[in-house]
UniProtKB/TrEMBL annotation:
<feature type="binding site">
    <location>
        <position position="89"/>
    </location>
    <ligand>
        <name>Mg(2+)</name>
    </ligand>
</feature>
<feature type="domain" description="Phosphoribosyl-AMP cyclohydrolase">
    <location>
        <begin position="42"/>
        <end position="115"/>
    </location>
</feature>
<dbReference type="GO" id="GO:0008270">
    <property type="term" value="F:zinc ion binding"/>
</dbReference>
<keyword id="KW-0862">Zinc</keyword>
<dbReference type="InterPro" id="IPR026660">
    <property type="entry name" value="PRA-CH"/>
</dbReference>
<dbReference type="GO" id="GO:0000105">
    <property type="term" value="P:L-histidine biosynthetic process"/>
</dbReference>
<feature type="binding site">
    <location>
        <position position="106"/>
    </location>
    <ligand>
        <name>Zn(2+)</name>
    </ligand>
</feature>
<comment type="similarity">
    <text>In the N-terminal section; belongs to the PRA-CH family.</text>
</comment>
<feature type="binding site">
    <location>
        <position position="91"/>
    </location>
    <ligand>
        <name>Mg(2+)</name>
    </ligand>
</feature>
<comment type="subunit">
    <text>Homodimer.</text>
</comment>
<keyword id="KW-0378">Hydrolase</keyword>
<feature type="binding site">
    <location>
        <position position="90"/>
    </location>
    <ligand>
        <name>Zn(2+)</name>
    </ligand>
</feature>
<protein>
    <recommendedName>
        <fullName>Phosphoribosyl-AMP cyclohydrolase</fullName>
        <ecNumber>3.5.4.19</ecNumber>
    </recommendedName>
</protein>
<keyword id="KW-0963">Cytoplasm</keyword>
<feature type="binding site">
    <location>
        <position position="93"/>
    </location>
    <ligand>
        <name>Mg(2+)</name>
    </ligand>
</feature>
<dbReference type="GO" id="GO:0004636">
    <property type="term" value="F:phosphoribosyl-ATP diphosphatase activity"/>
</dbReference>
<dbReference type="InterPro" id="IPR002496">
    <property type="entry name" value="PRib_AMP_CycHydrolase_dom"/>
</dbReference>
Length: 135
């Protein structure tokens, strides 16, 4: 992407839009992470307009799949998400938004949406001797 400014703030910059791989409903998964602790807070979904709003306002906006409307985290609860960084994954089918979370991120009132579900039983993997020291 070039560094030239995109001056039409009413639509998503086409240089960003062309990099996205939307699902069949025009959505991309957005992982929301606390910027300083790296805690994963929640997963939401964004279409091009929600992405545009997030990039241009500094607050996270999602598309509600159940209500079929935009919602900006914190507008009713006060638990706002202030954007610190925004990145696409290598395939363009997921977004990582680092935020400064005010209050709970989850609608249950928990800090993270991954608290209520709890840990699942899993076989823990281990590196081989040859893999030690590799990232």
């Amino acid at each position: 992407m070039t560094n030239e400014a995109y001056d039409d703030t009413t639509t998503l910059d086409p240089r960003i839009a062309q990099r996205l791989k939307h699902d069949d409903k025009g959505l991309v998964a957005a992982v929301i992470q606390q910027f300083d602790t790296k805690e994963v807070l929640m997963v939401g979904y964004m279409n091009d307009e929600a992405i545009r709003r997030t990039l241009t306002t500094g607050r996270v906006t999602f598309w509600s799949r159940s209500r079929q409307e935009y919602w900006r985290k914190g507008d009713t609860s006060g638990h706002a998400q202030y954007v610190k960084s925004f990145a696409l994954d290598c395939d363009g089918d997921a977004i990582l938004v680092e935020v400064d979370q005010v209050g709970a991120a989850c609608h249950t009132g928990k800090r993270s949406c991954f608290e209520e579900g709890g840990q699942l039983p899993v076989v823990v993997g281990h590196r081989t001797k040859e893999q030690e020291g590799q990232r």
